[in-house]
Design brief:
Blueprint: H1 2-10, E1 12-13, E2 16-17, H2 20-27, E3 31-36, H3 43-49, E4 53-57, H4 63-73, H5 80-92
Antiparallel strand pairs: 1-2, 3-4
InterPro entries: Malonyl_CoA_deC, Malonyl_CoA_deC_C, Malonyl_CoA_deC_C_sf
GO molecular function: malonyl-CoA decarboxylase activity
Domain Malonyl-CoA decarboxylase C-terminal: 1-58
Length: 95
Amino acid sequence: MRLCAWYLYGEKHRGYALNPVANFHLQNGSVMWRINWMADTSPRGIGTSCGMMVNYRYFLEDTASNSAAYLGTQQIQASEQVLSLVSQFQQNSKL
């Protein structure tokens, strides 16, 4: 879960989220809301994402500012759950 959070939040391509689905939702002003363990146990889900799934949440009053922040400064809006997992990854990573 920590590695998944880091991949989605911390791994970048030209400053933006490396994952194309994350990049799509973040460009449109969402918040990286929750990472779900074993949410997609289909063979495809296990093969492509180890069964993990991410929820992106859109707060309509914040989508324009979130989108502008992401496109302008590559700032990702994320929930406390996601940020906690990112922090845990950073503390324990040897990367």
